[in-house]
């Protein structure tokens, strides 16, 4: 049997990382942060335990990356929902509602995420965080900001403050109150976005978040590929139709070994 090409190994590593991100979100949401171990996450992902430390320095960094992915994909989904629009004010409203909605629907994850950001290691500059930042920066630019690079950090700070205020134990602020303040700052009409009283298709408090961690290659993943990872024009790639099972763990280990 001929050895796998570099492009196939790269895709196997990408899928392994995706499964770890998804497993981290699922388990912390179900059990809480302290009750979830890296071994639990590896087992849920169907990956060799040694691969967790290959991709992430530790559990806190893994969870940060996982929640940033969840935030990025939630925001992306809300911005591109029907009816599609390029109106900057409407897209800003959708962005605010996406983050507040995630706070309402996934309080355990978001509370732990905020706590992690206050640790000594602070903000993890991972690919997931960078994609989330770019999406918010683009939203700020579409809103009409003459300097999105300067105005984006303030939007980020206001959203983080709203998440914290909604989740602080004992004295949480109501989501509609926080929404009203953010909408007032950005001069948005209450009817824009998805008002709290609006029925959202599929309801809220979703437990199946797998669509945010698809194993198929996403367009932004292709754009983020580093040139040095490519070897020629080999068309090798894996598809969603290929099964994910016990052989993936063996493939992960082989891909890991060949990458060293």
Q: Can you describe this structure?
A:
The chain is mostly helical. The protein has eleven helices and no strands. The chain has helices at 6-31, 38-45, 50-55, 59-79, 88-105, 107-117, 127-143, 148-167, 175-185, 219-224, 246-259. The radius of gyration is 20 Å and the shape is globular. The relative contact order is 0.17. Residues 199-205 and 217-260 have low confidence and may be disordered.
Which spans of ≥5 residues are poorly predicted at pLDDT below 50? 199-205, 217-260
Record field, number of beta strands: 0
Radius of gyration: 20 Å
Q: For the residues shown, what is the average pLDDT?
A: 80
- The shape, in one word, is globular
What profile does the largest beta sheet have?
none
* Class by SSE composition: mainly alpha
Features:
mainly alpha; globular; 260 residues
What is the topology?
Elements: H1 6-31, H2 38-45, H3 50-55, H4 59-79, H5 88-105, H6 107-117, H7 127-143, H8 148-167, H9 175-185, H10 219-224, H11 246-259
